[in-house]
Amino acid sequence: MDNRRKFLQKSLLTLGGALAGTSLLSAKETSNIGGSKKITINHNDVILFQGDSITDNGRKRDNLEPNNTDAFGKGYAMIAASNLLNKYADKNIQVYNRGISGNKVPQLAERWDTDCIALKPTILSIMIGINDYWHKRNGNYEGSANAYKDQYRKLLDQTLTALPQVKLIIGEPFGVKNVKHVDDSWFPELTQYQQVANEIAKEYHAVFLPYQSIFDKAEKRANGKYWTTDGVHTTLAGANLMAQHWIETVK
């Protein structure tokens, strides 16, 4: 499980990056699966939300400013960011949203230098994977859970090489059954992608947000249509549900 981080550490040390190697160990110690330990918000942190339409949620993409309402859309990223900026007002943090509707991991990779590396995030939250599965269903994409895993690992390897101190939060792709697009036929194949996201989080010592079980549990309080509009995209209640769980990963 540690081989990939160890390889990156050795590469950075070979280049004289001894400090970077230490940072990778620090990231391992300060983040985990499921969030029994929390990521500490520090002064001048740069927090980046990345992903697809669930993160994008109607943001104005020509507004690239941090901490700006128009730049955040109407989803969980906006709600989480507003909470962060209120709670940590004394820490001078910058929060960005760079989610783009329709993206799969390959589209993240195409824009990663500009929309991630150049921003130098200290905390990086990624919510990706539902399109990597969903777009297969309409014949617009030839992918697999294995391809998703390989592409995701390459993306994180690139990230850790450039930003060895970054702390990672991985959101699980989810589908709320019997709401418009999502039915029993999505499973168990979608589950394979969810397992990959969990494995990726373990391998890279990221905090993991198990959104499938979060929505499954929420359905005991209200049906799926209360939380999502189509089984994937959130209502106002669903966005708040995601944001509340996201906020619980930091301190």
TrEMBL record:
At the top level of its lineage, which domain of life is listed? Bacteria
Pfam families named among the record's database cross-references: Lipase_GDSL_2 (PF13472)
The record's InterPro entries line, in alphabetical order, gives:
Ester_Hydrolysis_Enzymes, SGNH_hydro, SGNH_hydro_sf, TAT_signal
Residue ranges annotated for the SGNH hydrolase-type esterase domain, each copy included: 51-239
GO terms (molecular function) for this protein are: phosphatidylcholine lysophospholipase activity
The record ties this protein, via PANTHER family, to: SGNH HYDROLASE-TYPE ESTERASE DOMAIN-CONTAINING PROTEIN, THIOESTERASE 1/PROTEASE 1/LYSOPHOSPHOLIPASE L1
Q: Supply the name of the protein.
A: Lysophospholipase
Supply the source organism for this entry: Sphingobacterium alkalisoli
